[in-house]
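User: quick one
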Amino acid sequence: MLAKVKSYALSGLEGYLVDIEVDLRPGVPVFDIVGLPSSSIKEARNRVQTAVKNSGYEFKGKRVTINLAPADTKKDGSYFDFPMAIGFLLSSGQLPSDIYKDYIMIGELSLDGTLRGVNGIMPMLISALQSGYNKFIIPQGNVKEASYIKGIEVIAVDTLSQACFFLSGLEKIVPIELCEYKAGEEKNCADADFAFVKGQSLAKRALEIAVAGGHNILMSGPPGTGKTMLARCVPSIMPKLSFEEAIEITKIHSIAGILDSEAGIVRTRPFRNPHHTASSYALTGGGSNAMPGEVSLAHHGVLFLDEIPEYQRKTLETLRQPLEGGSITVARVARTVEYPARFMLIASMNPCPCGRGGTECTCSAREIAIYRNKLSGPLLDRIDISVTVDNVEYDELRCKGSSESSADIKERVETARQIQLERYKLEGIFSNSQMSNALIEKYCAIDFESEGLLKQAYKRLNLSARGTIRVLKTARTIADLDKAQNISSSHLAEAIQFRGYEKERL
Amino acid sequence: MNYTKEQKACIWLSSIEGLNSSKKIKLLTMREHPYELYADLRNMRTQIIMEIDELTYEKLAHSKEANEIEQHCQALQKNGVYALTFFDDAYPRVLKEIDTPPILLYCKGDISLLGELCIAVIGTRAPSRYGITITEQFCEGLVERGIVIVSGLARGIDAVAHKVALACGGATIAVLGSGIDVIYPFENRNIYKEIAENGLIISEYKMGTRPNAYQFPERNRLISGVSQGVLVTEAGAKSGSLITADFALKQGKELFLVPGNITSKKSEGANLLLKSVQGAMVTNVNDIFDALGIKKLDLQPQVAKLDMIEETIVKALREGEKHLEQLLALTELRIADLSAILVKMELFGIINKLDNNYYGVTE
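Assistant: Done. Structure below.
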């Protein structure tokens, strides 16, 4: 007898329907799975057999053939265990059910028959919903994740037998309730708040501007000056995560398997801090099944590259596409996937290889040049703001006056972001950092006095043409933070302070 | 360009490797006219071999036989290089007075600059912000009085000196330690091009010579040689500028040293030299003009209209360098306002941004 059970699989962020056809006939007892299964799916035969037996059903010695349709797409993961077992029970006549055809079933089986949660539930459910399927049976472990999706009926089960009771009508299970999304604050502010950072007013201000305008930022300074601490505080001043953003992030984190199953959704902006030994694939995503990399995991959050010249140059260059377009295409033999990757880049570096910088530096000019040249021009062009973080003297650590808290800064940032959203409604961008040259011309008009300032900056500070573009973008953000319509000379002057890192400078 | 027989002899001799300047001069002055060396080479064989070794003589003879001199002249023409020989009128007199003047200077650009009042501005290849700033200040002052700035086209202070001279519309001479068509370091290629057009580049090495390490000390004697004075703005303990300073003293040129921070490694060399050389210390460009007998500049800063806050900042900075945080506490301004004010003051030359977010007043 033949049974057909519906399940779902993922290719990148998009899901597709998989029909699991189970056929049973007399013959040599063999358990065959066809339809390009990966080895984790092939191993399902043992899990299914044992789980079926341990749930109190019989596994008779018959020839079992399971086909995963569409048969020409390579499939991976363990989410077919559960539908395969149901399919087997149906075709062996041990499970009388009329309603099984309505449901899409996803889940991994444990040997004792319990269902384990799987990765990627949220993108699968959303994608299935878009294709018109709205009834699901999933493991209890994935409940939280599923409860944020509107318009679906989700039955959560603990064990295979519970699912069988439900499908045969012996037990009623109430679909899970929809959860209300609330942007979280509880986690990210406890230890990382700008109120705890003493001194470093300039760096804090630079970060505020960077967040307000979505600019990427480079902090340079000797070791131990608090660059990492400052970067860790950045998520606490970023605007609250909207539901749509939260869903986008959760989808990616769900696929990568780093989603907290208790929370079920990502409420706070991610802060990703890959070590400098990371390969380019770790950053961009890859592997045979094109998993998302750090740039995608940092989507709508912060990607912090500490000691950026220590990264391999090849690795850094891969950042250019996501920095420009806000997404990354990961192409592999099996599949080509596009992941979103709109993140804020925070990079840090020492002034020179010895780290001391200034008059105490002992590096040769050549060493410094090699160190700095690891950052290519095109990459630096995408970093609008650079700031020097310096050693804070002991008495400054205890200096009077408390620092501003992250909450206060966040308020200003949100206002500035709102102004930008309003302004760029028709331009198809979200923040000042994304302005093209034409838009800069349109929105960054400067007055006569500012013109004079820029000229002085050319002369005295070797400001380059590209540097000017970055300065203008930054000035626009500073004006927005000030809620000013036009860029004033003070805004411009402050932006010059944070002018991008200039390679030619001696 | 047609060269005379005399000049050709110099061009020919300077293209021979393995001879230093003093030997070359000796060979050229053996007879009454330098070109006789070329014309009468074979007859002078024994005399020459007594001065130099036989192998080098063979080189000379071979080069003459192959008539390489014409090739050299053509190559010079093609590259827009003029060969200025020891026997030319345009050859700077000050250079003739040094121990071993080069018999030939390869020149690219305006050779009349060699006759002007030249001051060498040199220093470390890895300058601090302080070094850069004072180099800029001194060069601006020197250029204002029409003085030609001589330097070595190296990284750091040299490059700053050249750049300021060019930017202020002044004249500058670059003395290379490699062949005149070899740009070293290559990162200064833009400065090289600009000087070739608006200044003068000279080298004593034949075209195509690599920048070998031993040539740089040799080159340094020319930097001080063509100049009336040498200004060292920042030099570490082992800086090559100290060699130039040494040459300046030996050649009887004026030596000017700018004192540096005693805790800074990059000022060690200049400070050390200051202790031993009496009267070399200069703290502004007028000290140089004083020594050279040139009319001083009015260094009073243009009375920029300062408002109250700016006044406060300048007053505080006159007492010593201050960190941004200190200024912040002093003025009680928001960081946004203060940094805007500081940048404006920096751009108008009232204050300087130093390393690590420290600020200092310019005068």
